[in-house]
Design brief:
Its main location: cytoplasm. By secondary structure, the chain is mainly α. The protein has one domain: Four Helix Bundle (Hemerythrin (Met), subunit A), CATH 1.20.120.340. It has 5 helices and no strands. Helix 2 packs antiparallel against helix 3, helix 3 runs antiparallel to helix 4 and helix 4 runs antiparallel to helix 5. The longest helix is centred in the first third of the chain and has 25 residues. It is globular, with a radius of gyration of 15 Å. It starts with a helix and ends with a helix. The relative contact order is 0.13.
Length: 126
């Protein structure tokens, strides 16, 4: 019962943050979601929870492909947007391989790459 209430509170909290976020903050939330999913996948690998790992990695790939990539404006963004598009594609591919092979190293690489970009986004806000 407590877990259900806690999950409901987290969902409402997330929905509130999303509804009040600027476009810049939404991108930061996407990064945070992908990073958290990768961390969770790593924990699931350690615990041998294959279903949990697969779900977490799928969530990270979905955020990268349908969230972060969809925010790119390849026409106006020029070389930076093109490079990010290629990087996001690479990260998605590495996440898929990490899922197939339970590869903690690939997960860490993806985490580090996304975290570096996320840190830049966070700095922009300052």
């Amino acid at each position: 019962m407590y877990k259900m209430g806690s999950h409901a509170y987290e969902q409402v909290n997330l929905e509130t943050r999303i509804s009040q976020a600027s476009p810049h903050q939404l991108i930061v939330l996407l990064f945070d979601g992908a990073l958290n999913a990768i961390k969770l996948a790593s924990l699931y690998i350690q615990k041998g929870n294959i279903v949990g790992k697969g779900n977490a990695i799928s969530k990270a790939i979905n955020i990268v492909d349908n969230g972060l990539k969809s925010c790119l404006d390849l026409e106006k963004g020029g070389e930076i947007a093109e490079n990010l598009d290629r990087l996001y594609h690479y990260i998605s591919q590495q996440l898929l391989l990490a899922n197939l092979h339970n590869d903690q190293e690939k997960l860490q690489t993806c985490f580090d790459l996304l975290n570096n970009i996320a840190e830049s986004w966070r700095e922009i806000a300052k």
